[in-house]
């Protein structure tokens, strides 16, 4: 195994330091003797622990035309991630030990990062019957995060049972909070603009009502709840109250909800259609503040690749969802670091430490320190580049950032001491 000497890296943005990586771990050995060691010049680069995504759609099995474990994890590595949680809304749905083990194996065999399958809460995501949560937890994939994401677990009794069930193995239920009746036919954020554009509105209350119910349920049964893609100011406030009450509630925000607003729907370009929808300036302000003060625990991409024919249609018939893995860190730099809301230690906390903790990962979200697994990313925060969809590693092209200039370039990503990205290029 090649050893690497990373020179001049600013660990969590601190003073330049050298890092030696040997046998997959950060070494304790004093630097100096460099025979047989590959040197990586990291002058001016910020070193962060490898990023962890709690919410990635890899689309395999079933929609390999949109993404595969290979292309999705390559996109992840290019974005600085060393671990992703793969959402369960595949075809077949990841609702059995067999399917989650299949996804886990695909990650082990060919992935550019570690893949942790998310198990479905209900059979077929149909919301009728609990899936075999225990068997998925006991499987080789050791599932700890369960979600019907893409759909909301609407039935309060099923949600309660799922919350109770996952306690046995310290699991968490990650809810896609969307009250179905309030969002029938919904196309974009409900507001003055949806009226003007003639698109059916998706009201904030449809998200907030589910979050309020689920926080109460989680408190009632003493279990862990994770709220996916918080998008409204009211949702941030509900999570803040739940935490203040001492309830075991965590939450994530996506890069797109940190940066983009519903104004983009004016273009009728379906690349901006997503669930939950892009919201208002005030909501963007609230999710940024929530992430800064820790009310929102982490950034999760909700990377949702879609084939061209599913996205390049009229707005109403296009699938919701947008890419996120490759630009997530850049968006966080633009919205949180350059605005002074988070320092680099804060970025490491919200994009690596806390998501790893929520997913109960032991090998990720660790400090870059002697003896620790060498999972890390080297970022050039000064470089700014215009996003070109043609240059993405993802198999899909539905990035909402096309043509936008964003700061921060991932120069290298290391997974257990091996570079998955070096000089900004994917390895293997
Ligand atoms: O916009 C979305 N797309 N939101 C989801 O919850 C699911 C995702 C998908 O699977 O495409
Ligand atoms: Zn979702």
| Residue share in β-strands | 15-25%
Give me the number of helical elements: 12
Q: Taking Cα atoms only, what radius of gyration do you get, to the nearest Å?
A: 21 Å
Question: Quick one: biggest sheet?
Answer: 9 strands, mixed
> What's the mean pLDDT score?
97
Distance between the termini: 14 Å
Bulk shape? globular
Describe this structure in words.
- Strands 1, 2, 3, 4, 5, 16, 17, 18 and 19 form a nine-stranded mixed sheet that branches. This protein has a five-stranded parallel sheet with strand order 9-10-13-14-15. The protein has a three-stranded parallel sheet with strand order 6-7-8.
- The protein is globular.
- It is an alpha/beta fold and 428 residues long.
- The chain has twelve helices and 19 strands.
- The chain has helices at residues 69-78, 97-110, 133-138, 156-166, 192-197, 204-221, 233-244, 255-259, 281-293, 308-311, 328-337, 344-358; strands at residues 3-11, 16-22, 25-26, 37-41, 46-49, 51-56, 81-86, 114-117, 145-146, 172-175, 188-189, 201-202, 225-227, 249-253, 298-299, 376-386, 405-415, 418-422, 425-426.
- The chain binds (4S)-2,6-dioxohexahydropyrimidine-4-carboxylic acid (DOR) and zinc ion.
- Zinc ion binds next to loops.
What is this structure, in a nutshell?
The protein has twelve helices and 19 strands. The chain has helices spanning 69-78, 97-110, 133-138, 156-166, 192-197, 204-221, 233-244, 255-259, 281-293, 308-311, 328-337, 344-358; strands spanning 3-11, 16-22, 25-26, 37-41, 46-49, 51-56, 81-86, 114-117, 145-146, 172-175, 188-189, 201-202, 225-227, 249-253, 298-299, 376-386, 405-415, 418-422, 425-426. Helix 7 packs parallel to helix 9.
């Amino acid at each position: 195994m090649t050893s690497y000497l990373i020179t001049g890296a600013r660990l969590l943005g601190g003073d330049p330091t050298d890092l030696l990586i040997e046998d997959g771990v950060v070494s304790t050995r004093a630097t100096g003797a460099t025979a047989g060691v590959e040197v990586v010049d990291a002058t001016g680069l910020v070193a962060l622990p490898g990023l962890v995504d709690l919410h990635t759609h890899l689309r395999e099995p079933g929609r390999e035309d949109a993404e595969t474990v290979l292309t999705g994890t390559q996109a992840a590595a290019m974005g600085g991630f060393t671990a992703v949680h793969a959402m369960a809304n595949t075809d077949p749905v990841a609702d059995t030990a067999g399917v989650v083990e299949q996804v886990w194996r695909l990650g082990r065999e060919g992935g550019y990062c570690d893949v942790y399958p998310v198990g479905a809460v209900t059979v077929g995501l149909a919301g009728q019957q609990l899936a075999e949560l225990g068997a998925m937890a006991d499987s080789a994939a050791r599932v700890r995060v369960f979600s019907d994401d893409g759909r909301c677990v609407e039935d309060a009794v099923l949600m309660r049972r799922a919350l109770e069930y996952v306690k046995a193995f310290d699991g968490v239920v990650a809810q896609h909070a969307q009250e179905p009746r309030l969002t029938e036919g919904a196309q974009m954020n409900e507001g003055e603009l949806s009226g003007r554009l003639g698109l059916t509105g998706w009201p904030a209350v449809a998200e907030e009502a589910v979050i309020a119910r689920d926080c109460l349920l989680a408190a009632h049964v003493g279990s862990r709840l994770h709220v996916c893609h918080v998008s409204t100011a009211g949702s941030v406030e509900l999570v803040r109250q739940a935490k203040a009450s001492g309830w075991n509630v965590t939450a994530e925000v996506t890069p797109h909800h940190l940066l983009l607003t519903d104004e983009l729907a004016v273009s009728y370009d379906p690349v901006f259609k997503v669930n939950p929808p892009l919201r208002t300036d005030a909501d963007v302000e609230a999710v940024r503040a929530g992430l800064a003060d820790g009310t929102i625990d982490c950034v999760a991409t909700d990377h949702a690749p879609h084939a061209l024919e599913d996205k390049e249609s009229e707005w109403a018939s296009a699938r919701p969802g947008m890419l996120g893995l490759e630009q997530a860190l850049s968006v966080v730099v633009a919205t949180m670091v350059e605005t002074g809301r988070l320092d680099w230690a804060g970025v490491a906390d919200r994009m690596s430490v806390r998501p790893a903790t929520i997913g109960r990962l032991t090998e990720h979200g660790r400090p870059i320190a002697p003896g620790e697994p060498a999972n890390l990313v080297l970022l050039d925060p000064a470089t700014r580049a215009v996003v070109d969809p043609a240059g993405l590693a993802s198999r899909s092209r539905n990035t909402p950032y096309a043509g936008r200039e964003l700061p921060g370039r991932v120069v290298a990503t290391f997974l257990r001491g091996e570079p998955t990205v070096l000089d900004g290029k994917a390895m293997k």
